[in-house]
Design a protein that fits this description.
With 461 residues, the chain is an alpha/beta fold. It is built from 18 helices and 17 strands. The longest helix is centred in the first third of the chain and has 20 residues.
């Protein structure tokens, strides 16, 4: 999956390809968060942006004959047009995604390229649509079949659903069958996640106050507009973080594939935070330090505990194979040792089938990933080092699973131009299978610090 952007925040023109682990590094105000939020917004809203047209005569046939068969490949052949149209629609929605003025995105372009040559369709699909306890029609696709079968389950006179709604339901089924294998389910931990952890209750109170206001308001007021007006000034990733923390009482009732099959991953995470999170029946959220008989509220807990809250609940209750976990600055409030451990956790998740996308300023994370790359070779001395330093085989990672980009000013040829121009872009970093990632945005700063300290120590001589 390749993403191209133009005039997006600080980024004049840039492109990046998602790997199993994708990293964007760079100085502040260089476009990392803009690229991240734009990617998340697309993956979070793509079903609304994609448009598949079902001919009205097909709906007439369904109501007349009781069944229709749609050739899925006919819609696969339209996939490039569907994606391009969706990107244009999504670009127009960027002001809402970022909660920013439309003027800021008037010349922005956002494009997604997918590998549509051999789309791996969803193997099986089975959906029943009904009213109350009565199923009205079914939508099915059997394994290895390229036909979508829509079957009416009641007499035509009993179907009260408007034709355009039926068309939309069938179109949504086709979207899932064709595009779900290409577009990962995504979860984001935004850089503002620490505040969401502290104020989750206050955010609930804010909505309660709005509901009270709605009850006293003029009858002509739009209740949905009133209910959601407290969210108008927040970007979509922040909204989703807030909603996630507000729904923890429901979320804890589910178990992720990690909780069911890889409890050691959750144990590693518990070691990083030094305890566990718990939600009571009264929807009270606490942190319980390991080995202590005390429960701490979020405002009593460390900033590190708060910054990893939503990641912890995602891993234990939400994670699915094939997901894309996006973390904006995973190093937030973490001691260098825990930054290293988070890097190892991410590598383990990648090896288990969860894609990771991060932005980072952390040299510790990059260097730890380099260690995991360098140790991932079948050499006796590397095995001895890994064992001595307590690295596990499942944490080691192959260089070809990683994509790294530096947000920086560079000389590139802008589209439609013939000469190179300096502008803000994303530059692909070299990754050596023997020595790891060449993250020069960190190296330059470290070299400068070393030079100054060497001058302090040795200049007197």
């Amino acid at each position: 999956m390749k993403i191209k952007v133009k005039n997006l925040g600080a980024l004049k023109q840039a492109e990046f390809t998602l790997g199993e682990l994708t990293i964007i590094c760079g100085c502040n105000n260089t476009g990392k968060t803009y690229a991240t939020y734009a990617l998340f917004g697309f993956l979070y809203t793509w079903r609304r942006m994609f448009s598949i047209q079902i001919r009205s005569d097909k709906i007439d046939q369904l109501l007349a004959d009781g069944v229709i068969r749609l050739d899925i490949q006919e819609y696969v052949q339209q996939s490039e047009h569907i994606i391009n149209q969706a990107c244009r629609t999504y670009t127009q929605q960027l002001p809402k995604i970022f909660a920013a003025p439309s003027e800021r995105f008037k010349s922005t372009e956002f494009e997604v390229s997918l590998n549509i040559q051999n789309i791996p369709l969803v193997n099986r699909f089975d959906l029943k649509i009904g009213s109350g306890e009565v199923s009205l029609f079914s939508i099915t696709k059997t394994e290895e079949s390229t036909e979508l079968v829509v079957t009416l389950l009641v007499e035509k006179k009993n179907v009260k659903i408007p034709n355009d709604v039926i068309e939309r339901i069938i179109a949504d089924a086709l979207k899932d069958i064709i595009f779900v294998p290409l577009l990962p389910r995504t979860f984001i931990a935004s850089a503002e996640r620490t505040g969401a952890a502290i104020f989750r209750k206050e955010l609930n109170f804010a909505r309660n106050r709005l509901l009270e206001e709605m009850g006293q308001a003029d009858k002509d007021i739009n209740p949905m507009e009133l209910l959601f007006k407290d969210y108008d000034d927040y970007a979509l990733p922040i909204k989703t973080n807030v909603d996630f923390t507000r729904q923890l009482e429901t979320i804890v009732k589910r178990s992720s594939f990690l909780a069911e099959n890889y409890p050691d991953v959750l144990a590693d995470f518990a070691d990083i935070i030094g305890g566990e999170y718990t939600v009571t029946r009264n929807d009270e959220l606490y942190y319980v330090p390991k080995g202590k008989r005390v429960k701490l509220s979020m405002d009593e807990s460390s900033s590190a505990v708060r910054s990893l809250l939503d990641i912890g609940f995602y891993l234990r209750h939400e994670a699915k194979i094939g997901d894309l976990l996006i973390v904006d600055e995973p190093e937030l409030n973490l001691h260098p040792e825990n930054q290293r451990r988070v890097a190892r956790l991410f590598a383990r998740l990648v090896n288990l089938g969860i894609k990771i996308f991060i932005t980072t300023h952390s040299d510790y994370i990059i260097k730890e990933l380099n260690t995991l790359i360098m140790l991932n070779h079948d050499k006796p001395h590397l095995k001895r080092i890994a064992e001595a330093e307590h690295y596990r085989q499942e944490e080691l990672i192959s260089a070809d699973k990683i994509k790294v980009y530096i947000a920086e000013e560079a000389s590139i040829i802008l589209e439609g131009k013939t000469k190179k121009q300096k502008c803000q872009t994303l530059t692909s970093a070299d990754i050596d299978p023997e020595f790891g990632i060449a993250a020069r945005s960190f190296d330059k700063t470290i070299e400068t610090m070393n030079r100054i300290q060497e001058a302090i120590i040795w200049s007197e001589e």
